[in-house]
Amino acid sequence: MNITIKPPVYSASACTAPLHQTTVFYSPCMPAITAARLATRDFTVFIIDDDPGVLKSLARFVRAAGYVVQTFSSANDFLGFAGVDGPGCVVVDLMMPGINGRELQAALCKGEFERSIVFISGTTDAPTIVDAMKAGAIDFLIKPVDGNALLGALSTAVERQTKLHQKQVELADIRHRLAQLTPREAEVLRHVIAGRLNKQIAWTLGTVEKTIKVHRGRIMEKMAVRSIAELVRLTEQIGIAPCETEESQGKDSESLDAVMGSQPNRLAGRSLQVA
Q: Does the predicted TM-score (pTM) go above 0.70?
């Protein structure tokens, strides 16, 4: 099978031949190669196709664009590769013997790391394309593959990888801050992000309001936030849930009402108020 790379602007002498017959890549055929090289040093494109000719042609084209490339003739070979967890993108043929492209996508989605996927296929079956895109594929390219479309998909994958890395760094920083809290401060934290007042937290935990105020101040300092809204945002990112109403009401409501009285600033729902 021949894969023809035909960017919008190309030289007839350099770009009209099938890719497997082309031995030299000229700059008019390769948009933004320099930029790609600067952005992809730690980014690997894993190409999977059971057709040796297609595999070789795609690998040569993607390398010429400045990417690091690893090739595999089957999804099983790819899954057994030790470096599969590294940053990168999978370019995979939809229909292959053994594990096909969609099955590989499902397997990767079950893993602990996110993996960008670009499908290439000779089929134009709409339901298959829609299902692949809904499952998170970056693009679904029909053979013969357009060179600009492939480079565009890889550029999107690099951008997605960068955002994912930034998110991982942010989450690691939040976990580091949380690790600085004492067990009691961590307990108070869940009440604070539920929007509870100091006097409410003190009543539930069986202590005095002044102690909760001290805990709250230390929590804000250790978490490096200036408002409860910031604190809520950080805990939502890391998946810490606030105390539920039933959990926080350790005493019966009548006793709590007697202690707190009928003050107008009592907690309404989950509104965030700072005592």
A: no
